[in-house]
Amino acid sequence: MSAPRTDVRNIAIIAHVDHGKTTLVDGLLKQAGAFRRGEVVNECALDSNPLERERGITILSKNTAITWGQGTRATRINIVDTPGHADFGGEVERVLRMVDSVLLLVDAFEGPMPQTRFVTKKALALGLKPILVVNKIDRPGCDPTGTVDEVFDLFVHLGANDAQLDFPIIYASGRQGYAIHELSDEPHDLAPLLDLILEKVEPPVVDLDAPLCMQVATLDYDDYLGYVAIGRISAGKVKMGDRVLCAHRDGKREEFRVQKVLASQGLRRFEIAEGSAGDIVAVTGMSELNVGETLTDIVQPTILPLLTIDEPTLSMQFIANDGPFAGQEGKYVTTRNLRERLEKELKSNVALRVEDTALPNIFKVSGRGELHLTVLIETMRREGFELCVSQPEVIFKTAESGEKLEPYEDVLIDVEQSYAGAVIEKLGSRGARMTDMAPTGDGRTRIEFLCPSRGLIGYRNEFLTDTRGTGVLNHNFRDYGAYVGPMKGRAQGVLIAQDPGETNTYGLFYLQERGALFLGPQINVYGGQIVGLHSRENDLIVNPSKAKQLNNIRTHAADEKLFLTPPLSLTLEQAIELINDDELVEVTPKAIRLRKRVLDHNARKRSEKETS
User: Fold this and answer.
1) In whole angstroms, what is the distance from residue 251 CA to residue 271 CA?
2) 596 CB burial (10 A radius; 0-12, 13-18, 19+)
3) pLDDT digits (tens, 9 = 90+) for 121-141
4) Range list of β-strands (E), 278-358
5) Residue 408 β-bridge partners
6) Which of 32, 56, 223, 348 is the most buried (most CB within 10 A)?
């Protein structure tokens, strides 16, 4: 017999990147007393991954829970914090099926952004009724009322029904830790938001006596526990020691004994005796697992439809490091190490694809976007791996009619009006089509484009240069569209080291006028390594290790001091965006180097002649 569970609420927080989701979750945890008195808690406590802390973004969706209310009114609120970046949108789509409502967080200054549209469309399609949280109302120059109007227009455009259009509104500042129903109210704490969740979010309607049924919305992998299935129990109960059936994606059915049932509270995951319908739990014990599979009763199985997993749109080659410095800086160097690490990543990173190629030391790795893949590369680098990676390539498709298709993205750019012309010209040359343009106040303009994904590869650095670092660029995958033809690559050539050696001030001083350098003095280089960006279109072989000839002539000119311009320090993303298809980025725990795919100059010349 189905009945509502009034002691539980399940809610997800969705928003565009950097609109304050994780900061607001911190405030809710503190408000509900999830931390001990005197406990030292980091800012953005749920962002436990070091990369998440450094970049200030959420990469993996995480669920936590708080208890709000006293005595018989105490209610467990399961909260799912979701990523805001488009490359991790697949995480958002899956976890929305675990909840009964969403907190739609919108920055009161920026208003709805591309990822806001993406996640809201998914939530509305699932029939969820959002609660609008207008965040950062303490930010100077914000427009909370205008933001509400923009969100309403967005809902109408996305085809929301009448019940979804009648959304509750609350104004908040996650950083300051308060929420208010009206802008004229005096701010105190976040209690009004928690009370609103209890009032407006419908309790889950469940049948506790039915056979077990649970769909895996996300998964984890632990070297001790093995696979960890995380999801919401839609019917029945599960406890440690139960015999359970796992219906796999490929049609196989695995019977296993439940080793542990885990739940979350605050920042901790702990073992519980039993999980009931309506709870979000983690279950261990199965030998294989994939997202969207069903855990169910063996005698009376209920197999739920499989969840769709986003197809990759971008691919790169991961190559075992074969450069002259291979093995000097990393712990894991061989092809076998690389294969084992990628296979391990596949167990938890469900949007990733890994394929073998004709060469045994090269793997084709496909993902949802550039950030999705660079986060993996950076993680491997910190674990002690050495590898080389190629220029990203979009994944093309062929329509039923035989037409070639490529991925397109919605691009939203916020720039000062004086730089708008340069941005429109550059993106126009990259196949983009402008769809909207409007002033946003304070001399700034918001421009929207529909652009092929290929056109955005390598553009961010150019964009920051054109806008003097003041522009904001956001993009989100939309769909596959018609192929726009070949695109022009990097306009400049590179400076290539001629021989192995150590760079010095004298050699680099006379190379400065040739272009921008990536290296300073006293750094070891090898033949075929890229040491700088040439000011002209062609590649140039140079000698950064050239030493000054010693003689006994003493003149003012001979003793003149040499001054070097500070070298360009490239991040991993900048290096990957910069290279052409005949170049690689060598990634080690201590360095990021650029190199030619073929290091030998003569062999490279021969291959260039053969391809031309």
Assistant:
1) 30
2) buried
3) 878 888 888 889 888 888 887
4) 280-284, 294-296, 314-320, 353-356
5) 452, 479
6) 32
